[in-house]
Amino acid sequence: VDTRSIDHPNVRSDEITDGAGFKDHNFDGDGWLNDIEISLLRELYGGLVDYLDYQLAAFLESLAEMNELENTILILTSDHGEHLGDKEMIGHSHFLFDEVMRVPLVIAGPGGPENTRRTDLASLIDVYDTICDLSNVPTPEHTSGISLFSQQEREAVFAEYGIRDLDKMGYSSIDGEIRKRLK
């Protein structure tokens, strides 16, 4: 991030790089965004998704031109979702809400079923085992994932949040009604 390109009196460059300024954008009743600003942020986020889609299409086209597409396993996912005004938050918080925890997972290529949408439970730790399975590579015994194309199914998916970074992320000052609402 070129911190010199952000010109706002309430944002200092050290806040941009260490995350300390993040708290100013959440739970701040007086400074919270209005509906028009939230709508604009959602449109900008949609533009980012459109740009990613365009780049992905170009990447797939280059693989097809090199005759490598039929030998490629494509996996699209994310490490987290985003709050776009949900629960009075912007960005990806360290709270375990669906907006942050539920992410897309798309798998395409040789070895997998075609045109199938599944709703069973999956975890990102399953991606490694799934890659091994689709590549016909033995999965090491020490993994805790399950290939998404095996006969096994998950009964539950767990997530946890550590409190060690509360001060660093600016959340330790949250109290009162806001803290109750987030539990």
What does this structure look like?
- By secondary structure, the protein is mainly alpha-helical.
- Helices cover 33% and strands 7% of the residues.
- It contains six helices and four strands, in the order ααβββαβααα.
- The chain has helices spanning 13-18, 35-65, 98-101, 126-134, 166-169, 176-182; strands spanning 74-77, 83-84, 90-91, 105-108.
- The strands form two sheets. The protein has a two-stranded antiparallel ribbon.
- A hairpin with a 5-residue loop joins β2 and β3 (90-91).
- The longest helix is centred in the N-terminal third of the chain and has 31 residues, at 35-65.
- The protein starts with 12 loop residues before the first helix and ends with a helix.
- 7% of the residues are buried.
- Residues 1-6 and 15-25 have low confidence and may be disordered.
In short:
By secondary structure, this protein is mostly helical. The chain has 6 helices and 4 strands; from the N terminus they run H-H-E-E-E-H-E-H-H-H.
> Radius of gyration in whole Å, from Cα?
20 Å
Shape: flat
**End-to-end Cα distance:** 33 Å
> What percent of the residues sit in helical stretches (DSSP H or I)?
25-40%
Along the chain, the helix and strand elements come as HHEEEHEHHH
Average pLDDT level: 78
What class do helices, strands and sheet pairing give? mainly alpha
Biggest sheet: strand arrangement: 1-4
The biggest sheet, with number of strands, parallel, antiparallel or mixed sense and barrel status, is: 2 strands, antiparallel
Query: Which segments are poorly predicted (pLDDT under 50) over 5 or more consecutive residues?
Result: 1-6, 15-25
Number of strands: 4
Beta fraction of the residues? 5-15%
Number of helices: 6
